[in-house]
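Exercise 7.
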Amino acid sequence: MRYASYLRDGSARTAALIDGKWYDVGTETIVSRLQAGIDLSQTESLARGGEFDLDEVTLLPLIATPPKIFCIGLNYLDHAAESPYKDRPSYPAVFPRYATSLVGHGQPIVRPQVSDQLDFEGELVAVIGKGGRHIRKADALSHVAGYSIFNEGSIRDYQFKSPQWTVGKNFDDTGAFGPVLVTADELPPGAHGLKIETRLNGTVMQRGNTADLIFPVAELIATLSEAITLQPGDVIVTGTPAGIGWARKPPVFMKDGDVCEIEIEGIGTLRNPVRDEVHAAAS
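Solution. The predicted structure, written as tokens, is:
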């Protein structure tokens, strides 16, 4: 099954792909369905509304307000090697993202006025369907509802202002999330072995494979749940492969008018224009 979140008549709604067609399935969100214990891979609980073309509506962040967003840094060996840290990490680098940073497919990623170092990071997302604490690695994938795509726009100069990266990873409107959730049953276990590619204005910047994750999805779930109770709707952004703009010589950063696309095999393509931040004139 595939789900999307979209805007209709000023309200957020959920859509589902059923028998090859997109249908409105109401205002109940993906998170509320997961919290109610609904198996998203089944269609029996869906109140099918009107059919429509997903390309003709405004898509929202797949989950607009996740309970928690965990981001994982340095989770591909080639990316760790191009970073200032170089060595293979022995424990996942974990940092939070906040809902105010999220935008949907087709919505602008915003380059802030205070920086010209807006970088791209194509990443696989795992969405938690069943929560818990101290989840065993062997059981972890049964806690995944599905997978999606993230473009973790990073403000590099702010990321490296301090030893922890949170500010540089949380500017408003820099994290693109979507366009769809693909339920776990439609992909290989752990979304393993999927090609991932980032394109900036049609030029390939990153090319990797989820088989190369240092800490695969099951291990991330087990590790995070050692410390933190996972909840339905929690989002794990699993890390990016090599090829980021900051590591290039000369560096390549996103700017106003650019279009960035992240494609993951079996899931789809997340596409966003880039726009400069505009402040209203002071009164």
